Amino acid sequence: MIEVRELTKRYGATTAVDRLSFTVRPGTVTGFLGPNGAGKTTSMRILLGLDAATSGEALVNGGGYAALRRPMREVGALLDAGAVHGGRRAFDHLGWLARSNGIGARRVAEVLEQVGLAGVARKRVGGFSLGMRQRLGIAAALLGDPGVLMFDEPVNGLDPDGVRWIRELMRSLAADGRTVLVSSHLMTEMELTADRLIIIGRGRLIADTSVRELADRFRRGVLVRTPRPAALTAVLAAAGGSVESMPGGALTVTGMDVAVIGDRAAARGIPLYEVTPHSASLEEAYMELTAGSTEFGAVAS
Ligand SMILES: Nc1ncnc2c1ncn2[C@@H]1O[C@H](COP(=O)(O)OP(=O)(O)OP(=O)(O)O)[C@@H](O)[C@H]1O
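# adenosine-5'-triphosphate complex -> structure
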C-alpha cells in the first residue's frame, strides 16, 4: 500500500507538489496521470527516499522508505532506465543489486527470464536498445519480489510490442495482489492499463477515481433517431428527460438511460432507428480536467 498525505515539495520558488494526498491499494494498477511538470516524478522520488519532502508524508507499507528494513523486498521501482553503467553486463548489474540486498543469484536468472533478457544476460548494457534498458530496469524492480511497484513513464519510447508487454506485466503484477503505481502523461495508455486513476496538475490532486467513474462522469447523453422526433420529445420530456434537437433530425437525451428511452418509446409505439449512449473519450475528459494545469500550454489568441 502507498499512502501520500498532505505531501508538499518546494524547490526554491517552485512548488512541485502541493498538499497532495492519495492512497494506492493492492490488487489494482493505479495510473498516476498529469501533464509535464505536474509533480509525478517528484512524488515518486519522495516515496522512494530519493528526495526529502518539504512537509507531509509519503509512506510505503505504513512507513517512510528510510524505515524499510529490506527496501528491495518491499518496493521496486523503475524511474530512469538510462541510469545503468553501459560497461556492465546485464547479469552483473542485477547481481550486484541482488547481493547488496541479500538476494541470491538464482533470482537474478529468474527475473532476466521474466523480462525476456535471458539471452543477452552476458551482454554489455551499453549496446542495449531503449526497450531492452526498460526491461532491465523492470528486472531490477522485480528482483526483491516486492509487494509495491512504481514505474515512471515505463512505455516512453517503446515499440508497440514493448508497450503491450509492459501493459500485460502491470496487469499480472496487480492480479498477484501487488500495489502497482504507474505514471504517464497519456490517458490513452492508462485507459488500457489502469483500474484507478490519480490525476494531478501543478502538484495538486485533480481527481482520484476509477476509470469507469470517470467515463460515467463525462457521459454526454444518448443520441436517438426516430421518424417521429416531436412525439418522442414530448414523451421523454414528460418523463423527466431533457431533449435537444440536433442538426439532421437526431435528438440528444440527457438524464435518462437507454432502457428507459426504449421503454417509453415502445409504450407509445414510437419507432426508434438508433439509440447510442455518447461519452466524451477519456482523453477529452482528461484534457478538460487538466486544462489550465499544463506547464507550457499554448496561449489562446
Ligand atoms: N531538482 C529540481 N529542482 C528544481 N525544480 C525541480 C526539480 N525537480 C523537479 N522540479 C520542478 O518541479 C515540477 C514538477 O516536476 P516533476 O518532474 O515531478 O513533474 P512530472 O509530473 O514528473 O513531469 P514530467 O512528465 O515532465 O516528467 C516541475 O516544475 C519541475 O521543473
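# post-check
The pocket of adenosine-5'-triphosphate is lined by residues 11, 14, 16, 34, 36-42, 185, 295 (CB under 6 Å).
The mean pLDDT is 90.
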